[in-house]
Amino acid sequence: MGMPVHFASKKAEKLKEPGAFNVVLLNDNYTTMDFVVDILIGIFNKSSIEAERIMMNIHRKGRGVAGAYSFDIARTKAAQVHALAGQYDFPLRCEVEPV
């Protein structure tokens, strides 16, 4: 007889490893809060509530983690942030750093 489904799913959750690199958005005095929220929703697939929370962390603390990913995905997302910010003439920057 196999394991009950709820035990098997718990075990699978424990085996799933988080990404190894954070994409961290940095605060500046020019990028609008709305644009940061749009970036978090559009590039990082955050809900509007989660995007608002992260944006406020960035605003208050100077930086905020947008998500944790493998290195290649983190680097790609950072490049997307920089490209989109550039299109809208915002100086929004982000960094990729180990978790």
CATH class: Alpha Beta
Task: Quickly count the helices.
Answer: 4
Output the helix-strand order: HEHHEHE
Mean pLDDT, to the nearest integer, reads: 88
Total domain count: 1
Q: What proportion of the residues is helical, as a percent range?
A: 40-55%
Identify the overall geometry: globular
Strand order of the largest sheet: 2-1-3
Structure class: alpha+beta
CATH fold descriptor: Ribosomal Protein L30, Chain: A
Could you tell me the radius of gyration in angstroms? 16 Å
Estimated share of beta-strand residues? 15-25%
Spans of at least 5 consecutive residues whose pLDDT stays below 50 are 3-12
Distance between the termini: 40 Å
Largest sheet: 3 strands, antiparallel
Give the total of beta strands.
3
Any idea what the CATH architecture is?
A: 2-Layer Sandwich
